[in-house]
Every structure is written in C-alpha cells, then in structure tokens.
Amino acid sequence: MTPLAHVVTTDLAAIMRGRPVSEERLQKAAAIGLGWVPANLCLTPFNSIPGENPWGSAGDLRLVPDLSARFSTSSTGAETPLDLVMGDLVELDGSPWTGCTRTQLKDALAALKKATGLSVVAAFEQEFLLRPAIADPLRVPGHAFSVASFRATGVFGPRLATCLEEAGVEPEMVLPEYGNDQFEVTHAPTDGLAAADRAIVIREVTREVARNLGRRACFAPKPAVEGVGNGVHIHFSLVDADGKPATYDGGRPGGLAAAAGSFCAGVLKHLQVLTVLTASSPPSYYRLAPHNWSSSYTWLGERDREATLRICPVVTMGGRDPAKQFNIEYRAADATANPYLALAGIVRAGLAGIEQKLPAPPIVSGDPTLMSEAELDAKGLRRLPETLEAALEALKADETVCAWFPKSLIDSFVAVKQAELALMAGKDKAEICAAYGDRY
Ligand code: GLU
Ligand code: MG
C-alpha cells in the first residue's frame, strides 16, 4: 500500500481540508502546488457553499505544501500513518492568494516584527469531550480531574500522547478536565505560525485516535446547553529580535512590560469586534457568558479565569526566571474559529495598541455582573457580543478591523457565517448545540 500524505488548508469554518498525495507527488507539489478551488473557502461546516460569495464557480488556485511543516504519526490505530503537510494557497503564478488564512497569520506576524522588532510565541490549550461510541444511559461520567476518568479512557490518553510526540507538536499534557467526559490537550509554546499549525494538527490527531477506538472527540464550544464549554485558550508572549522574553517587567503592574501592556490594550480596545474571529459560530456565544470560566467582558485580569486576557502565573520556586514563563492567555476562543485568523486578529489588534502607544489596561478583579454601569465604565469593562449575529454586525460596521484583512476574505467570512446563521434559523439552543457538536 502506498502511504499518502495530506496537503491541507484550514478554512473559515475551521475545517481542515486537503488533498492526499503520494510522496513522489508531494515532492513535485512543493514547486507547483496542487489544484484548489477558491469557493472552497466558503464551505460551511454543513457541506454547503453560500450562493452569495466572492468567488462563484470560476477560478483556480494552487495549494503548495510547506515541507517544513509536516506532522506525521503512525500510532493512531489506523492502518496507514496520518501524515499532514500544512499548505499555503497561491494564485497560478505563485503569488499569495488573499483568502489563505495561513498567509494572513504570516503577514500579521511579519507586520508586528517589522514595526516593533517583536515576535509572538504562542500555545493553544484545547478542551474537548471524549464521547462514547454509543450513548449508554446507565453510564456514570467520571469525576473531574480524576485518575479514574483518565484510566477509563483505556489506551486513548497514552496513545494520543504518543501520536502527538511522534508528530513533533511537543505535547505537554493530555488530562481529564472539569466537565463530564471533558479532556484537555496542551503543547509547548512555539512561534505564532507553528503554534496555529500545532493547534489544528492536535485536533485532527485527537479526532483520529478517538475514532479508531470507536469514540468521538468533540471540540464544539458548547456540546450541550447545560454542559461545560470547550475553550481554546491562546497563550501568547513577545520576544525581541534576539529571542529574549520581552513581555515581563517586574516593576510594572501585573508584571506587564510597556509594549506588552500596549499590546493587551489594543486587544481589549478591539475585542468586541475581534471576538467573531475567535468565537465564530452560534454556540460560541452560549459559552461566552459570565460564570463559565470562559470570558465575557473586555477584561484584563491577573490569574482570574473569568477574564478575557488572563495574566498567567509564574513559578519562582528554585529561583526560576519569571520572564521566561510570563505569558497572557486569550480565553474568548474556541475550535469553531480558524486558529490562523484568530491569532492574526489578536496580533493586528496588539500591533495597533503598540503603534498608538496605548497605556496598559487596568487590571481588574471582582465580578462584573455585580458592578454598576458606572463601575464597569470606570474599569473599561464592556460586555462581549452575546450572539453570532451581534458579533458579525460589529465586524461589518468596523472599518478598522476589516482593513486588517483583504476585503475578499472579510466578505467570504461574512458570507459563511451568515449562511451558518440561516441554516440554524428556527432551531432552539439545544438543536444548535447538537448540530455543532456533531460537526466539530
Ligand atoms: N471550560 C472553560 C472554557 O470554556 C475553561 C476552564 C479552564 O480550563 O479554565 O473556556
Ligand atoms: Mg481547561
């Protein structure tokens, strides 16, 4: 049997799609790419393409494998290896295509570096449910964080850890989380582009390991209305041109260095618009509610899991250096958002904050739902959009954020999300959670 590698691209519904090829064709494709169709960018997670989209039936692209971003494992339990090669979409003459989300992240990272000399280091922390193959009403879910919950998955946990190690994504932990049947998978921080690659690879490997054990891994933001949400927490820090940590300054509030403070201020300033790029489906907004430990306000907090930007803890035991560990966690993201676009949005907002020399945001503690309007105002706390409709309207109305991306990309994004909303029209929350639970 000829093993096949998959050259992949991730679209606006955050689905990894691609073309399977032999090793020989893969090597040839590195020079000229493989055929791809522009309108594919506008596929919904329900296998439809909205009639109103910028591409129509015409046109052709090339999907060019980036051989330096290849992730393979032969331990998923499948008969053949899972071999994923990240691809970039280009025009037939090799120039970048405006709809390529991976290219958008590269451009955002390059713009930050050019303007400030700073680079982003990131890590995606992802939660998912490990669902049984057949629903058994007599089954009792295990305890949160318990040894028994982990052991009850059988070979799933160790196998997933082995596959991720083999694929080179530097897994840190696969662990049972708080929710019923909920798990979390983390990887070591790396440069921004590689982190987004790792995020989608980890999801796909997790799904495949589960599938081969007759289980299903579900990364949907809210698999059930009453259940716990699945977050994708994006950890980020800045390094200077020499690769030295540049986020930490022990003399400033929260330990935030000046540029990092401005970066966070930029993110919070644009957050109500940015959210749609990081939480991109109707059920995303059932998760982004107060008291879910997800995030729901434009809020910088220190070690507070309700904040949207959380200053993470540093360990000083044994004389460890805080600067090397110091990072900020963006919590308003989930797996229905394209990780390239999500991080590109965060970087563009952060860059705007640095360029405008915005002062670091106040560090807020407390419960915003118990604060008066005046107190919320004084602390700069504004509620994030409460529905995908509202989030999409906010994006459409914001020329600044739209201008961070090519118009055709924004138009495609709006088309896909409007199509998803139309497909969900008339369904109640439970049906919407179930529909997205089945697709993610
Ligand atoms: N499940 C929570 C979320 O939806 C996160 C819980 C935590 O790990 O802090 O983001
Ligand atoms: Mg978690």
Structure in words:
This protein is an alpha+beta fold and 440 residues long. The protein has one domain: Glutamine synthetase/guanido kinase, catalytic domain (Creatine Kinase, Chain A, domain 2), CATH 3.30.590.10. It is 36% helix and 19% strand. The protein contains 14 helices and 14 strands. Strands 6, 7, 8, 9, 10, 11, 12, 13 and 14 form a 9-stranded mixed beta sheet that branches. Strands 2-1-5-4-3 form a 5-stranded mixed beta sheet, sandwiched between helices. A hairpin with an 8-residue loop joins strand 4 and strand 5. Helix 2 packs parallel to helix 9 (339-355). It is globular and about 65 Å long. The mean pLDDT is 96. Bound molecules: glutamic acid and magnesium ion. Magnesium ion binds next to loops.
Summarize the structure.
With 440 residues, the protein is an alpha+beta fold. 36% of the residues lie in helices and 19% in strands.
